[in-house]
Amino acid sequence: MPIYFWAFVVATVVVLIVTPAVILLARKTGAMDAPNARKVHKKPIPRIGGLAIYLGFLMSIIFIAAKFGLDGEQVKETIGLVISGSLIVALGLVDDYKNLPAKIKLLGQICAAAVLVLIFDVRIDFVTDPFGDYFYFDNLPIPYLAIPITMFWLVGLTNTVNLIDGLDGLAAGVSTIASFTIMLVALEQNFILVAVMTAALAGAAFGFLKYNFHPAKIFMGDTGSMFLGFMLAGISVTGAVKSVATIALIVPIFALGLPILDTTFAIIRRLRGGVPIFKPDKGHLHHRLLSVGFSQCQAVLLMYVISALFGLSAIALTAVSSQIAVLILVVVVVAIIYGVKKLGIARPAN
Q1: pTM to 2 decimals?
Q2: In whole angstroms, how far apart are CA 152 and each of 117, 250, 347?
């Protein structure tokens, strides 16, 4: 079996095995998500399922390292991702138990990002445009600009997945699709470590769907949603992929196009409504779909389809000419504008 297949299978199996224990732990320790006016579930649900996702990913990476080995820069970057990801999981666990203020949670995310960027040197030093020209941040008048840019990338994607976690199976399914997208492009470019890590992440999220799809037996909570977002962001800018713009930035942006857009329009919506951008509302895409008559399952499946289309677009962008890439981008933008107007997700929520 290919190494990335092992990574996927091990992560999936571990999550399937440990999630029932995590459900029991949540019930015994009071980590329960109570229903309220903004949420769609009607009874308390365990909410530290992200712990199972984390353990699945971690055990998969340990297995791969023991069976196949890692070398050179791979070891440093893998350790950095595991350590900073562990900090995110710890932050998420505290939040799932204590409901931390948004500013404290943001500070914790920045600290985890700083560990990866400053200690393990995982950063976006440059980008390339679709025509192959390089743009180096070090050449700008502001020194060390790569550091805040990379930290913004990490924290931003962490919160995009966190904010989309509003329906049973939604964040897990979207993260699975995004992980597979990045994995396929990494395999095309022969970036094996990136493929292995995204396969492990896909396996962990996919295994969790057995317990998280409607009707959910457990939620991933901030523990899981922040971990998935942070890892997707971190893996996509490791040293192996920084030289290829389509992976380093464009592919993860498209692969996570749905949560990125949902978060962007949430910010616009709250600014237009004169409310703090961190204040939750019922204006997210999944809320709009429910309001027009979709069931939970229908809304989630539709958003899976949208995510898959974004993923296919990302893969296509890596394999076509610049002219066709521009055409794909135009079609995607037109579709987004139409969807936004049709569902009104940029309008202030009631």
Answers
A1: 0.89
A2: 11, 16, 26
